[in-house]
């Protein structure tokens, strides 16, 4: 039975990284799910308070990083509130359109059109759309690092 549980835990960890490309998959919750399965069904004494506190801090950091990266780059490149909203909608729609390329192309196109509809020049609108892509990629990279650290913390805690 323990082998089956480990397979589920590993699968949850792997799918959490797929969630970086498909944001509708709750990546961090899958990592938490793997740890909770281990805690309740394999060995509760192996998961220390250090892991729970670290996971809580890293989860908060993950959400802040994602939000702040988008906010920073869209603002830095002159994006509007509507452009930021279009980027968010574009990421969600992009998950289903030409995966995984849609997650970059759809937000780019929606931000470009949104900024143009606000009577911004093409060059400025294009710059904002590029900023949106940079925001998404930097946020995704940061989330991948945080997720990897969470998994490493968990593994170190249970094996050391």
Mean pLDDT: 91
How is the main sheet built? Answer: none
Low-confidence stretches: none
Element-by-element helix/strand order: HHHHHH
Number of helices: 6
Q: How many strand elements?
A: 0
Beta-strand level of the residues, as a percent range?
under 5%
Structural class by sheet pairing and helices: mainly alpha
| Gross geometry | elongated
Calculate Rg over CA atoms: 19 Å
Q: How helical, in percent, are the residues?
A: over 70%
Note the gap between the termini. 23 Å
Task: Characterize the structure shown.
The protein is mostly helical and 160 residues long. Helix content is 80%, strand content 0%. The protein is built from 6 helices and no strands. Helix 1 (2-18) packs antiparallel against helix 2. The mean pLDDT is 91.
Structure, briefly:
This protein is mainly α and 160 residues long. It is 80% helix and 0% strand.
